[in-house]
Write a structure and sequence with these properties.
This protein is of the alpha+beta class. It folds into two domains: 7-173, Helix Hairpins; 181-332, no CATH class. Helix content is 45%, strand content 23%. The longest helix is centred in the N-terminal third of the chain and has 50 residues, at 59-108. The protein starts with 6 loop residues before the first strand and ends with a strand. Residues 146-173 form a coiled coil. Residues 298-335 are annotated as: Disordered. Residues 311-335 have a biased composition (Basic and acidic residues).
Length: 335
């Protein structure tokens, strides 16, 4: 009787899995969950000591406590999900180890059947019909075991994807938020005399706006600016960025705003002069609140206005108020 035909198959009896590595990863995740839960407890215990005895009350305390509750709730979820990830990894490792054991037993049943291996897989050369039946039966059983393994892996992959999405949401929620601040003295008080081209003038406002927008600024503190140029600066910024800007101006003094050209054309007498805070609304900043002038203990200055009438001397104009700063509340969007 002729020998049965050779039977070639991939190596169905080796899952090429590493359950030990999965178990080590599970230990890491479980340890992380324990540490996170411990951190949550420390935060809540400290807060309890402060708020239970009313050591801290008022609006700031209420705001912080709400923020703290939201934060620790997410910390608690993170700890819980970290433990769940550890359980998923442990379960998967157990399934792989047990099912690999079953495959090993099935493969041992074929030890008496001549076989060879190459890069394409295994080739069995059964000596008789009984061995041929043994090989085909072992292949069928191995495929069934692998089917069960694939079902478990697909289910656990979905579980891991769920936790990955949850961790990403928490990460996004508590990602550090930055605000870019630009402190800019535009020097409209410099060279503020008729015919003096030094300093910054009204026609330079578009360039100032480009400097602010080009730095991707969220808050710009602008010193030495005339109030009548602020509206143009706000419009230029909104056109360049496409965002809404809140502008707060605080007057330090009234100044004579001299034009660069001779004769004295376009000059403004007693023009409000001071500081401005420009705030860009966006993902982090909601808007602005109260604004006030803060007086600084510095003497005021003056300019000399040349006479434009024969026989009369130059005129000294004092700004009178000295230096001051603008203080503006910036409202940050709650998380």
């Amino acid at each position: 009787m002729a020998e049965p035909a050779p039977i070639t198959t991939t190596d169905l009896w080796d899952l090429n899995a590493d359950p030990e590595r999965l178990e080590k990863l599970a230990e890491t995740w479980r340890s992380l969950g324990t540490k996170v839960t411990s951190a949550e407890g420390l935060i809540n215990d400290a807060a309890q000591q402060v708020f239970a005895k009313e050591y801290w009350t008022g609006d700031t305390a209420t705001s912080f406590n709400g923020y703290r509750k939201k934060f620790t709730a997410d910390v608690e979820l993170f700890g819980k999900w970290a433990a769940n990830v550890a359980d998923v990894l442990t379960y998967t490792a157990t399934v792989l180890r047990v099912q690999q054991g079953l495959l090993n037993e099935e493969r041992k049943r074929l030890n008496g059947v001549p076989a060879s291996s190459d890069y394409t897989g295994l080739t069995f050369r059964p000596r008789d019909a009984e061995q041929s039946k043994l090989v085909t039966g072992a292949i069928t059983t191995a495929k069934e075991i692998r089917r069960r393994v694939d079902e478990v892996l697909a289910e656990k992959k979905r579980d891991m994807k769920f936790y990955e999405n949850q961790f990403e949401l928490i990460s996004k929620e508590w990602k550090p938020r930055t605000v870019r601040l630009l402190n800019l003295n535009i020097g409209q008080g410099a060279g503020n005399s008729p015919g003096d081209s030094s300093g910054t003038d009204s026609e330079d406002i578009s360039k100032i706006a480009q400097v602010i927008a080009g730095q991707d600024t969220d808050i710009a503190t602008v010193q030495e600016v005339f109030q009548h140029d602020i509206a143009d600066l706000e419009e230029e910024l909104e056109n360049r960025t496409g965002d809404n800007w809140d502008v707060k101006f605080e007057e330090a003094s009234s100044k004579y705003h001299a034009n660069d050209d001779w004769p004295i054309i376009g000059d403004i007498v007693n023009a409000p002069f001071g500081n401005a805070v420009l705030v860009r609304e966006g993902d982090v900043i909601e808007g602005t609140g109260d604004s006030e002038r803060v007086k600084l203990d510095v003497e005021g200055g003056s300019i000399t206005l040349p006479s434009n009438e024969p026989g009369k001397g130059d005129t000294r104009i004092d700004d009178g108020e000295g230096r001051s700063a603008a203080k503006t509340e910036v409202q940050i969007k709650p998380r």
